[in-house]
Design brief:
Helix content: under 10%
Number of strands: 10
Strand order of the largest sheet: 2-1-5-6
Radius of gyration: 19 Å
Mean pLDDT: 93
Shape: elongated
Largest sheet: 4 strands, antiparallel
Structural class: mainly beta
Oligomer: single chain
Number of helices: 1
Order of helices and strands: EEEEEEHEEEE
Distance between the termini: 14 Å
Number of domains: 1
Low-confidence stretches: none
């Protein structure tokens, strides 16, 4: 089984060909192709982690859609002072499909 560990959106993801991965927002329209930098490549028994060899590895992905994550509610409260603060957040996300890992 061939898989790679890639850096995507400040995190590391384990991907193989055909996987659907949700990443932090990446630039690109739906249907466009992006390349993700590989940090580790596992090809059966062979594990590649040297930077010189990983420079030749390309992991390509197709952008499927842009979406937003679930609403996160942030509440702060301090007792006996009248201080209350309420804030919300929704993370910008992109769903991609891994199309190829070329060594």
């Amino acid at each position: 089984m061939v898989y790679a560990i890639v850096r995507a959106g400040g995190r590391q993801e384990k991907v193989s060909v055909g996987d659907l991965v949700t990443l932090n927002r990446v630039a690109g329209e739906a249907g466009s192709t992006i390349e993700l930098p590989a940090l580790l490549l596992v090809d059966g028994e062979k594990v590649t982690s040297a930077a010189a060899e990983l420079a030749k590895v390309t992991v390509t992905a197709e952008v499927l859609e842009d979406l937003r994550g679930p609403k996160i509610v942030i509440q702060k409260y301090k007792n006996k002072t009248g201080y209350k603060k309420r804030q919300g957040h929704r993370q910008e996300l992109t769903k991609v499909k891994i199309t190829g890992i070329n060594a």
